[in-house]
Amino acid sequence: MGTGDNGEHGKGPRANRRFRSQEWFDNPNNPGMTALYIERYLNHGYTRSELQGEHPVIGIAQTGSDLAPCNKIHLFLMDRIKAGIRDAGGIPMEFPVHPIQETGKRPTAALDRNLAYLGLVEVLHGYPIDGVVLTTGCDKTTPAMLMGAATVDIPALALNGGPMLDGWWNGTRAGSGTIVWESRRLLAEGQIDYEEFMDRVCASAPSLGHCNTMGTASTMNAMAEALGMTLTGSSAIPAPFRERMAMAYETGRRIVEMVWDDLKPSDILTREAFETAIVVNSAIGGSTNAPPHLQAIARHAGVDLEVEDWQRIGHDVPLLVNMQPAGAYLGESFYRAGGVPAVMGELLRAGLLRGEAMTATGRAMRDNLAGWGSRDRDVIRGCDDPLRTRAGFLVLTGNLFDSALMKTSVISDDFRARFLSAPGREGIHDARAVVFEGPEDYHDRINDPDLEIGEDSMLFIRGVGCVGYPGSAEVVNMQPPDALIRAGVSHLPTVGDGRQSGTSESPSILNASPEAAVGGGLALLRTGDRVRLDLNAGRLDALVAPDEWDARRAAWVAPELNHQTPWQEMYRAHVGQLAQGGCLELATAYRRVRESLPRDNH
Ligand code: FES
Ligand code: MG
């Protein structure tokens, strides 16, 4: 484990260290292979003494590209990362990562998280790399990179590209994604037309960077920081700020020291680190995508974590961050108020974090947070004056699924009053189920009067989980029929075996596992069934007689899966459920892959 007491960068005790890369570049026992390995890298203009000297080779996993605009800023940060690596005595080697653009990839970028993970593991294992900078940003890029680093277990330091600048529309903040969900309701109400809809949404993306709301991107980068896998204060810096470039440089410097100290993901990704991340997720109003991603990282790190931990550890934590979709502000304000370490400083002071976990700085989290707290109480509240108490997720169960999540920080007063506040039945809501077979079916039929959707309806969507979609789609935040919206009902309770965007303010019940495509209870539900949501008991049940339910199960036939690409077929064959992280199950058995040196290639 790294001790962090090596003093200045590059000045530590370094006797008898042999780097992994030297197995490629400096092996006198095998001159034929050494020459073969080294001659092609000399093409860069490196000298033999650089590649054969005491210079750790630092991979830089490049997730940015023209196809991945949320992470494209990393193309411009690369110079600063490399400068930091060189100044600390390392050799930078940038390599491309399979793109994972949330807004660009169909049928869903979720399908690509595990593919990029596999690619990263293969690169880190098969090339002369001693440590790695993980460039992160857009939603799934962050977990994919952390999952890969956890499996290989070489020193790894994450650097995100930062959120875009704040978007503005007619004098108010236009937040990534959140403005889409707002504007589509205005469109349904007839308050705006198509042109204004387009202008409003495009105003939310004023610069390079990832989503400027506390959507999945900002959430997952906050999670990376809370886990201890970034430098302190790294995750919230907006993409175009000079501090972002400076952080890129410091990240480059620090990863070289982490290699010298042999400070690995397995030293950092402990059970306490994940518990810390869960607490932070509640306090920032983080995305419902965080549980499956954290679960996946934990499994690849060999840490026991269960979806129930999110309620047990996270539910009672207050919401401190006033940022869309749970609050009002966007990324620039969050950064100026101190960002993630300010939130964590408030939590630590209130006794909600332990702070003992080792971090990438080589120090315990508590030490990193010394002196940190909110710099703007309107944006980051203290624990004694939160935006909301008990702001974490509920983990529900019942006869429709073993587990599903509900994000309580976005339950509006109107929603609570309408559905969860009947006198004597607080937290309980009975409804009539309306079931859709995926988003196409939903779009085709949502305005069909024959469905008789009213205020007592609960909308269900199925076939949109990991196996069903494939990849698990962000479609559970279904909006009510246009007529109901015009009548003032902006949200109905919605349920599904897919996910929803982290930028959505919908209090959906989602990530239902097991999904319908593998025979989860949702598969048996029919339009017209009565259902009961009981938040006090933590249950959602179809009120169908047991005999009838059993008969439906006996008659259930697994849906035929239509694979469009080889990867879709491979993914479906090996993926687990969202409650277990949606991992490639066979991959979770691999640990510390770096310790097994691959065979020579000639
Ligand atoms: Fe890429 Fe939100 S779509 S960060
Ligand atoms: Mg999304």
Structure at a glance:
By secondary structure, the protein is an alpha/beta fold.
Give a short account of the largest sheet: 5 strands, mixed
Number of H- or I-type helical stretches: 22
Classify the beta-strand content into a percent band: 5-15%
User: Poorly predicted ranges (pLDDT <50, ≥5 residues)?
Assistant: 1-12
Number of strands: 14
Estimated radius of gyration: 24 Å
Family: Belongs to the IlvD/Edd family.
Keywords: Iron, Iron-sulfur, Lyase, Metal-binding
Region (Disordered): 1-25
Biased composition (Basic and acidic residues): 1-11
Descriptors for this entry?
602 residues; alpha/beta; 5-stranded mixed β-sheet; 4-stranded parallel β-sheet; 14 strands; 36% helix; globular; binds FE2/S2 (inorganic) cluster; binds magnesium ion; Dihydroxy-acid dehydratase family protein; DiOHA_6PGluconate_deHydtase_CS; Sugar_Degrad_Dehydratases
Task: Outline the structure in words.
This protein is 36% helix and 11% strand. The chain is built from 22 helices and 14 strands. Helix 4 packs across helix 10 and helix 9 runs antiparallel to helix 12. The chain has 602 residues and is of the alpha/beta class. The strands form four sheets. The protein has a five-stranded mixed β-sheet. Bound molecules: FE2/S2 (inorganic) cluster (FES) and magnesium ion.
